[in-house]
Design brief:
Layout (H helix, E strand, L loop, with lengths): L4 H15 L6 E6 L15 H14 L4 E6 L4 H16 L6 E6 L4 H9 L3 E7 L2 H7 L4 H17 L3 E7 L1 H7 L1 H10 L7 E6 L2 E4 L18 E6 L1
Parallel strand pairs: 1-2, 1-8, 2-3, 3-4, 4-5, 5-6
Antiparallel strand pairs: 6-7
Helix pairs in contact: 2-3, 3-4, 6-8, 7-8
């Protein structure tokens, strides 16, 4: 008996279901338009403008994630983040709103919490040069500081994404530092580990020993890019 088009479609879907979605790669889009900085050089949004854009990105464009600010920048920025988080919370989207924070003795985390946020993109040093020359710390000291920040954030009910600033130079000039840092952070609890190369973000492996970083996620392989 010849299968109808609908029967063939159902059969194909059944075979697809057997493989499971977890085996399929996926792409997430994280838009950083609202985080004033290099990606919006010469542009500064007012709080109400940020809210309007955030609503469009989350609801109309349906972007997976938006990074809306850097923590502790100004009172105006705090007002904007608070409005965006309030809107997102009222519409079940709070987990998609992210704020860039720093390894700063919990101050970024407290700032984001006061705004109503629950996701921090924690910026750490992705190269030995930045660690030793900017922070004036050893890799071990920086790793300990990161673990402290992550532990505190998780206690506050946060989701933590770890960003490695200057990762590209780190992989070129001091790959042992990058691998060692990721190994030192095993079990610390970040949802994602990501490398920050200017305004582009690519997920990297949480356990890197002998390989170039590859995509990771808690559920399925994911590559994350920013849009501008």
């Amino acid at each position: 008996m010849t299968n109808t088009s609908e029967e063939r479609k159902c059969s194909a879907m059944s075979e697809y279901d057997k493989t499971g979605m977890a085996d399929q790669p996926a792409i997430e889009i994280m838009d950083s338009t609202l985080r004033d900085g290099e990606q919006t050089s010469g542009v500064s949004f007012l709080p109400h403008e940020k809210l309007v854009i955030a609503r469009k990105l989350l609801k109309d464009v349906n972007v997976d994630r938006i990074e809306v600010a850097s923590a502790r920048v100004s009172d105006g920025e705090k007002n904007a983040v608070s409005m965006i988080c309030r809107y997102a919370a009222n519409n079940g989207m709070l987990g998609r709103v992210e704020v860039l924070g720093f390894v700063d003795g919990h101050r970024s985390i407290d700032w984001i919490k006061e705004c109503g946020g629950r996701v921090i993109n924690l910026l750490a040093k992705g190269s030995l040069k930045h660690c030793t020359q900017q922070l004036k710390k050893t890799p071990e000291e920086h790793a300990a500081d990161i673990r402290s920040e992550v532990a505190y954030a998780l206690e506050q009910g946060f989701t933590v994404n770890l960003y490695l600033e200057d990762w590209s130079n780190g992989m070129k000039d001091s790959p042992e530092y990058v691998y060692g840092l990721m190994d030192a952070l095993q079990g610390a609890g970040p949802t994602r580990s990501a490398s920050s190369i200017r305004c582009s973000v690519w997920n990297t492996c949480a356990r890197c020993s002998n390989a170039i970083p590859t995509p990771i996620s808690t559920s399925m392989p994911t590559t994350t890019t920013t849009s501008r």
